[in-house]
Every structure is written in C-alpha cells, then in structure tokens.
Amino acid sequence: MRPTRRTRILCGLLAGLMAVTCADRQRRNPLDPEASNPVEGTAPLRATAGHGQVRLAWDYTLFDDVAGVRLYRSGGGRERVRTLAASATGLVDGEVLNGTTYQYSLGLLLDEGGERRLDEVAWATPGPGVVWVADRRSGWVWQISPDGRSTRFAQGRFYVLSALALNRADGSCWVSDERLAGLHRIGRNGALTLRAARLGRPGSLSISRSGELAWIADLESRRVSWFVPSVGLDSLALNEADASFAEPVGLAAVDQACWIVDRAAGRVLLYQRDGARLGEWHGLDHPHRVAAGQDLSSPAWVLTAEGTGAVELTADGTLRALDLPFTPVLDLCVDGATGVCWLLGEDAVAAAGGDGPSVALPETARGGVRLVVDENGGALWVARGQDLWHLDAAAAGAPTARLTGFSGLVDLVVDPGDG
C-alpha cells in the first residue's frame, strides 16, 4: 500500500529530528518557536522535573496512521517501556526518585505494523526545589524546574523588575516592581496576586527564612519598612524602620531583624523589628550587595568598592575585611546549610576565605550577574543575561544544565523545597 501524505510528513519529520541534537534542544529559548517540532500541529517530547515526579508532554495526534505511542525510560538502574494509545499526549511519571536523572524517548506504532523510533530525547532530574528568575527586559518572572532543564510557567508582564524574594514558609515568590505601588505574590502553583502598599518606588526586598517578616526598601522615599507576608489581605500594612537612609539598596532579613545597606551614606545597619539598632557600621566604600546566614548568630557579608572589596559583619559589632580570591566580585550568596559564603567573579566562583574551594565558570557563563546556591543539592545557579546555568559545585563547577533565550536576567531565588 502506498504511504499516505501524513506518513510522508512523518518520515520527513523523523529525519528532521535526527538532525537536531538533544543537547541543543535542551538549551533553546523556552519561547523559541524553533524548539517546537517543524511540522505544524505537532509537539516534540518535553520532560519537566518536579518533586518526586516528571511531567511528560508530546503531541503526534496529527497523524492518522499512528496506532499507539511507546514511551521509553532509562535511569536509576532500570529500563522501562510503556505503551499508550495513539491519542495520548503526555503523562506524569510518579515512579521516580529525587536526584536521579532519567532519559525519555518515544516510538510511534504504525497501523501498517512496525515502529518508528523518534530520535528526540528528553532528560529530567526530579527534586523538591524550584527556581524563580526575573527577566527584566521581557517583564516576565519564570518558574524553573529543579534541574534547570525546562520552564514550568511564567507570570508578568512587569514594568521594571527590581527584586525577587522567596517565602520559604509557603514556597511563594514575591516581586518588587519599581513602577507599582505594591508587591506581587506568585504562589508555587502560579497564582498571581497584587498586594497594594504605599510605596513610591519599590526596590530591594527580603523575607526571613521562617517567612514571619518581610522587608522592603522604597527608593523614592528612601525608607525601609517591614510587613507580615502571611497575612492574606489585599493591601500590606507597612511598618517603617525608625531610621533615615540616603540610598537603601540592599536587604537581608534574619530572624526578627534585617541587614540594611545604605550605599550613598557608606554604612550598614542591623535593624530589629521592635526598633532597636543592633549594630551600625560607618565609613564603608560604596557598599551594595549583602548576604546573610540563617540567623543572627551567623555573620553577614557585604560587597564594597564596586566589588573590589568585601567585609564580614557580626551582630556583636565586629567588622573584618575579606581577602578576596579575585576582583571584581559581581555577586555573593550564603549557603544556609553550611554557612559558606560564595562569591561570583567574572571567570570563577569561590567560597569566601583564602583557602575556600573555587570552581571555574564555563566560558559562556562568564560575566554572570547573580549567584544562588541550592542548600539541599549543593548546586550553584548563575544568571547571565540570556542564560541560566546549573553547576555542580562538588564536580569543579561542571555544568549540568543551561537554559537560554531570556532577554535580560536580573535576579533569581532558589526554593530548596524544605518549607
């Protein structure tokens, strides 16, 4: 019997798929139309990792000579094959282990007999965490899968994305937009709500690990306020810190207090919810970025002098200059599980301190703007303009995933999934 027109399209499709490597597909823009199957009306295999599951999706229902779909899975020391109806366009694989990498592929069973194995392959490593990234030029905030291989959804569009903050208590992401008189909350499931507040120009934003308190800087009034994020009201009740600031650009919430960086005044202040000033450090050279540990017993680290200097501060009032492994330092973050402070340079990432570990950045990840560590997995996340990198700190910074196609990443936060 002569092949039908749809079968000929299918054969051409298969040849086209074999010309595209899986690694290339994994790195494509999540909005790039080239990431879709070249035949209109079909969709290639996509695997999105989650907590104890992998969500798979595809669509080959365009072809009327397909009798069934065969899904192949390898990983975790076990091969698995499932046969599904021709109308199937996906499933949720719940028989997976967090931290294990799985490989999926498809075969199409034809009416006339035989099987066409598709060359496309999708990988997924399930885990409890998620990543949020702010893409300022497009105005989108994306939720990324824990393995960094795919996007789950996006919310927006925001006008001028300023900062993201994670509420570990419920997994929500809070968004500061310089043109909005309030803050947006994005639930872990993607629900978006606006919480109105008397803010002229929202800036830096930070939420304590417990989720009890959140702190927001208003760049217009040059004030810093705290609020309770768990209160489910349409508007936020802001409580102003009893202090004046010249340029509050950095916040790091800990317990019932917050480290506040006042760049123009050259100072850092440790302010408590009840109005007490637990510490104040003056004479710093243009401080800007700040990162802090789990609680007030841990120090805070502050970048100074355009990233050519850094200091370690403690709640008892001490200050210690750090011996940096490289300059400039573009960003810093703290691993709450170990207390290690990580530094992002133009070419490498290193732990604070002269004898700390150092990992080289992949060439295309150099020049990153944000660095975050996953406390559960020990992985490092680096945002660089159009790319989001997932690096294995234990393997000398070996890249495990790269997601590209963003327009201008400016911030990211990681939810380790232990809230």
Briefly, what is this?
The chain has helices at 5-18, 22-26; strands at residues 43-50, 53-59, 66-74, 80-85, 90-93, 102-110, 115-124, 130-135, 140-144, 151-155, 161-167, 172-177, 182-186, 192-196, 202-207, 214-218, 223-227, 239-240, 248-254, 257-262, 267-272, 277-281, 290-292, 300-304, 309-313, 319-321, 331-334, 341-344, 348-351, 358-360, 370-373, 379-392, 398-415.
Question: CATH superfamily of the largest domain, called what?
Answer: YVTN repeat-like/Quinoprotein amine dehydrogenase
Mean pLDDT metric: 87
Percentage of β-strand residues: over 45%
User: What's the CATH first level of the largest domain?
Assistant: Mainly Beta
From the spread of the alpha carbons, the general shape counts as elongated
Helical segment count: 2
Looking at the overall shape, the CATH architecture of the largest domain is: 7 Propeller
> Biggest sheet, open or closed, and with what strands and sense?
6 strands, antiparallel
The helix content is under 10%
Oligomer: single chain
Could you characterize what this model shows?
With 419 residues, this protein is mainly β. It has two domains: 5-124, Sandwich (Immunoglobulin-like); 130-415, YVTN repeat-like/Quinoprotein amine dehydrogenase (Methylamine Dehydrogenase, Chain H, 7 Propeller). The chain has two helices and 33 strands. It has helices at residues 5-18, 22-26, and strands at 43-50, 53-59, 66-74, 80-85, 90-93, 102-110, 115-124, 130-135, 140-144, 151-155, 161-167, 172-177, 182-186, 192-196, 202-207, 214-218, 223-227, 239-240, 248-254, 257-262, 267-272, 277-281, 290-292, 300-304, 309-313, 319-321, 331-334, 341-344, 348-351, 358-360, 370-373, 379-392, 398-415. A six-stranded antiparallel β-sheet has the order 10-9-8-33-32-31, with no helix packed on it. A four-stranded antiparallel β-sheet has the order 4-3-6-7. A four-stranded antiparallel β-sheet has the order 11-12-13-14, with no helix packed on it. A hairpin with a 4-residue loop joins strand 16 and strand 17. The relative contact order is 0.11.
